[in-house]
Amino acid sequence: MSPRAAAGAEFLHVPPGRQGPGPLPGGLVDTLDLTVAQKAAGVLPGDRRAPGLGQGTELAQLRPYVPGDDVRQLDPAATARTGIPHVRQQVPERALTTWVALDVSPSMAFGTADRLKSDVAEGVALVVSRLALRRGGRIALATSGAAAERLLPPRSGRGALAGIRRVLAEGVAVDGAHAHDPAHPSPLARSLSRLRTLTPNPGLIVVVSDFRGPRDWRPPLAALAHRHAVLAVEVRDPREETLPSVGPLALIDPETGARIEVDTSSRRLRDRFAAAASADRAAIADELRRARSQHVVLSTEGDWLRVLGRRLS
């Protein structure tokens, strides 16, 4: 549950609504460029330029010349070494496709520090999109947790980034407006399962979520990791880890709207809350590790972009 003030609100700093991800300095983004490229280095060969022969190709092998081959592909060194004309056989590279699986459930609209969790998630989606397109790749987006879940198929160029921005501008779901039925897969699990059918070729999957609620997302995430490089970005808020001593406080589950009143002046209560939060964080980390995903934790407090660069370096 996320803490919302019922009394003593003056002791809690709550950002006045959506703040956006904050500045995205070009230097920091440039630093992440090589890191993200290395993350997917085992997925596709070469520098992952556009498909087709020429600049976007890799040298696959040499083979003997046969009539009809392009004589411009003759390899002088191999021909001289073997005494038989050889040609360079080049194969087109596939452009790397990056999918961003973005959690837009109500819990992402929470934040008590510099910004909301959804603001940080938006920034991660934008940075990943820019880096994917920078190398001639394609970017795709799938949201989960709202009544209207969005799916943007893989695209390249400025139009792709504009589409991502339009979806991000829609924000997150309203508290309790789209409660999850525990008898069915969670929205995140459902979204990841759908990605399995939409991603036949190896690529990069970036999941951005707070990973709150059911952990039925691990099996489909592990299945994706069999084929793709997977980066799991967990977004947290400091008040999800420790309660302030501010007296009576309302704890509200943004996913269901369930509400309870607690007295945060109780040291025992605060200790129990912190212990439960710590256990929950450890369980999430364990599930992500078992799903063979690289796990990065970002906070609504501080410079999330710099932390992302440091965690991935």
From TrEMBL:
Span list, region Disordered: 1-23
Top-level taxon of the source organism: Bacteria
Regions crossing the membrane: none
Ranges of residues in domain DUF58: 62-282
PANTHER family: BLL2464 PROTEIN (PTHR33608)
Protein name per Swiss-Prot or TrEMBL: DUF58 domain-containing protein
Species the sequence originates in: Capillimicrobium parvum
